[in-house]
């Protein structure tokens, strides 16, 4: 374990929790109200509930992945990226955010959160790798010019 890992994990959790603090009120405001007995508008559900939630979960995981991008093991990146989306999903069910209140809704949101965490952490890692490759490519040129 690297000596800076606890600090990186704490920073990752704090930043992804801040994104979750924005995501839950937004999810509550965007979600169409639950009306028992009326037909469900699937398009509204996807565009106003599931797509924004997935994007917020990607942002949570990406925010955590920024702090953990130099960790060599994927399990530490997952430990940083998973807690906020999972806790936000559970908190959304407890707070009564529409579409989070049923077992099916919570299950769908958990699946979306897990897939979004994979995407967000992959994006953070890919951008870090690209930045490292670009930095390595520029260093030899600076040495040749005498700087």
Task: Characterise this structure.
The chain crosses the membrane at residues 53-69, 81-100, 106-128. Residues 1-31 form the signal peptide. The structure is a single chain. Helices cover 79% and strands 0% of the residues. With 147 residues, the chain is mainly α. The chain has one domain. The chain is elongated and about 65 Å long.
Kindly list the characteristics that best describe this protein.
5 helices; about 0% strand; signal; transmembrane; transmembrane helix; membrane; Integral membrane protein
- Catalogue the unreliable spans: none
The tally of beta strands, per DSSP, is 0
Rg measurement, Å: 19 Å
- What is the number of independent domains? 1
Number of helices: 5
| First-residue to last-residue Cα separation | 36 Å
Which quaternary structure do these chains form? Answer: single chain
State the order of secondary-structure elements, H for helix, E for strand: HHHHH
Portion of residues in beta strands equals: under 5%
Shape annotation: elongated
Structural class, by secondary structure, is mainly alpha
Q: What is the helix content?
A: over 70%
Report the mean per-residue pLDDT as an integer: 85
Instruction: Give the biggest sheet.
Output: none
Protein name: Integral membrane protein
Organism: Actinomadura parmotrematis
Transmembrane segments: 53-69, 81-100, 106-128
Keywords: Membrane, Signal, Transmembrane, Transmembrane helix
């Amino acid at each position: 374990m690297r000596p800076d890992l606890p600090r990186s994990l704490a920073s990752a959790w704090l930043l992804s929790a801040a994104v979750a603090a924005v995501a839950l009120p937004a999810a509550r405001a965007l979600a169409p109200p639950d009306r028992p007995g009326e037909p469900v508008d699937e398009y509204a559900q996807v565009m106003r509930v599931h797509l924004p939630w997935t994007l917020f979960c990607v942002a949570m995981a990406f925010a955590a992945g920024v702090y953990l991008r130099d960790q060599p093991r994927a399990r530490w990146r997952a430990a940083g990226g998973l807690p906020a989306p999972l806790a936000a999903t559970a908190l959304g069910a407890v707070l009564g955010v529409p579409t989070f209140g049923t077992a099916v809704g919570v299950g769908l949101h958990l699946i979306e959160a897990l897939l979004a965490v994979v995407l967000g952490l992959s994006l953070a890692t890919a951008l870090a790798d690209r930045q490292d490759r670009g930095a390595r490519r520029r260093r030899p040129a600076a040495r040749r010019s005498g700087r």
